[in-house]
Design a protein that fits this description.
CATH architecture of the largest domain: 3-Layer(aba) Sandwich
Helix content: 25-40%
Oligomer: single chain
Structural class: alpha/beta
Mean pLDDT: 90
Strand content: 5-15%
Distance between the termini: 73 Å
Low-confidence stretches: none
Largest sheet: 5 strands, parallel
Number of strands: 9
Number of domains: 2
Strand order of the largest sheet: 6-5-7-8-9
Number of helices: 9
């Protein structure tokens, strides 16, 4: 009796957006959650051959191990890429050096439960040579903790604020500080928090004028919004 054939992964015709950096100032990013280890490895190889930074988001540790092991088995230097457990991302190593003349973006999080989303934002910025200052455990349940960090936060060109539960942190920040604030609702909280829906709707309904809000758990999207704002600020009146 002929044994059944082992399932094979379908051939992947990659069409990496290698012009994204020159077109938008952003590196190509790979969504890892719904891709196989082989598909992720092939994409990273393509970016590496093109001399571009690799960034893969939403990768659990077991899949990351399979990706990095597979790349090593194909003859790649195992130090070419690194898995960052806090942000569940695979990135090129080393990442670009941050500009010492530019102040770090402040990434503010209500609690350590928001660390994964905050770390994704930090890594996405680091892939573009932008430093970040991670400020944790300053949620509004203990408002004095946030107030004690205001002098530190005033130095940042903009703020990314990650919060679950009712998602009040970005509103408070946008009411206290003049910089752009990007709110990131996080899927943390009991019952009616509904996987971040309460935080999302609270941020969208904020009475703080000018607050920008991205989708639930979208640390990467917040980082790219920050990149656009910083780029526009750097261009100044020359845009016209």
């Amino acid at each position: 009796m002929t044994p059944p054939e082992e399932p094979t992964e379908p051939r992947l015709d990659l069409r990496l957006d290698l012009e994204r950096r020159s077109r938008l100032g952003m590196v190509e990013a790979i969504w890892g959650e719904h891709k196989s280890a082989g598909q992720i490895a092939a994409a990273l190889e393509g970016l590496h051959r093109a001399g571009q930074v690799g960034l893969v988001t939403r990768v659990v540790p077991s899949k990351a191990e399979a990706v990095l092991t597979g790349l090593a088995e194909r003859g790649h230097d195992p130090t070419t890429w690194r898995y960052h457990l806090d942000g569940h991302c695979i990135c090129s190593a080393p990442l670009p050096q941050a500009d010492p003349e530019q102040e770090a973006v402040a990434i503010v999080a209500g609690g350590s439960s928001d660390l994964g989303v905050a770390s994704e934002a930090s890594l996405a910025l680091a892939c573009h040579g932008i430093a970040s200052d991670l400020v944790l455990d300053v949620g509004v349940a203990g408002l004095h903790r946030l107030l004690g960090q205001l002098d530190r936060l005033r130095r940042a060109p903009l703020l990314i604020a990650c919060a679950g539960m009712e998602g009040a942190l970005p509103t408070v920040l946008a009411g206290l500080l003049p910089q752009p604030v990007i709110g990131v609702p996080v899927s943390v909280g009991y019952g009616v928090s509904a996987g971040g829906q309460a935080a999302l709707q609270g941020m969208l309904a904020s009475c703080a004028p000018g607050l920008t809000v991205v989708n639930i758990d979208n640390g990467y999207g917040a980082a790219m919004a920050a990149l656009r704002i910083l780029g526009a600020s750097a261009m100044g009146p020359e845009r016209g």
